[in-house]
Design brief:
Elements: H1 10-17, E1 24-27, H2 34-41, E2 50-55, H3 58-67, E3 74-78, H4 84-90, E4 96-102, H5 107-111, H6 136-142, H7 145-156, H8 161-172, H9 180-189, H10 193-196, H11 203-214, H12 216-229, E5 231-241, H13 244-258, E6 278-280, H14 290-295, E7 303-309
Parallel strand pairs: 1-2, 1-4, 2-3, 4-5
Antiparallel strand pairs: 5-7, 6-7
Helix pairs in contact: 7-8, 7-11, 8-9, 12-13
Length: 310
Amino acid sequence: MEFVHKPIMLTECLSALKIDPAGIYVDGTVGGAGHSKEIAKRLDYKKGGRLLCLDRDPDAVKTASERLKDFPQASVHHSNFSEIVCLLDSLNIDKIDGMLLDLGVSSFQLDCAERGFSFRNDAPLDMRMSKTGKSAKDVVNEYSEAELSKMIFTYSEERFARKIAAAIVRERQKKPIETTLELAEIIKGAMPAAAKREKNPCKRTFQAIRIEVNGELEHLKNALDDIFSKLNSGARLAIITFHSLEDRIVKQKYKEWCQGCTCPKDFPICVCGNTPKGKMTPNKAIEPNAEEQEQNPRSKCARLRVFEKL
């Protein structure tokens, strides 16, 4: 199956990065190289322009390497974006001029049944982006009822989290839960009739399990300050999020970086010494335009936030 990943808000991302042909940039989630290929086209290898393309998914690394083989300015690395400091240090790169993170699951991962991300096709419960470590099967069959309930509600705000967790535990006592459709039927069976009639009643629970399996929020939280430390003055960080949990983390961190003086308003002069480390540009999230949302329904929940280091 071909690795397909339609680049979300491609024009907006390229504009957000303000690409300098001689600059050094990082695509922390290269996927099918949709964004990376266009960034690479705008870099001049002879002037020192470089693009580092990272991904934790070995399938993405293989595909991106092939698609970028004609761009000497681009190199592909099997690495998580949370390892950015170690990677740059290993390459003797002190600072970068911009970085892009597209935090969405690629179309390939969703549509490739055997990867176990989707509730629409029957496949072994997996969901591992890196193809290593604990799988969705491990989470579903080994977590306690309380852990499952907390995970499902925290990572998806699923209002029937307790019922779903109880149903999972009840069914796995009969036999291990091994496939995506088995799990999907258990989830739907735990829901009231009205909830079952929703378009994708299993979506929230599958999202929660995927986030847990891949440690997505932890990687994001841990990476942001490290990324900031590697940005040149004037460099930009562009992040595309796909659900409120990710977006909240990014928004709060950007706000923290942009915060200036924290002294009480009645102080005649500043004594805290805090100054803004950068600015959001623009000040709010960018959304896909109507045409893109129509052509690529998966883009509808995407939000792009851009930060520029001062």
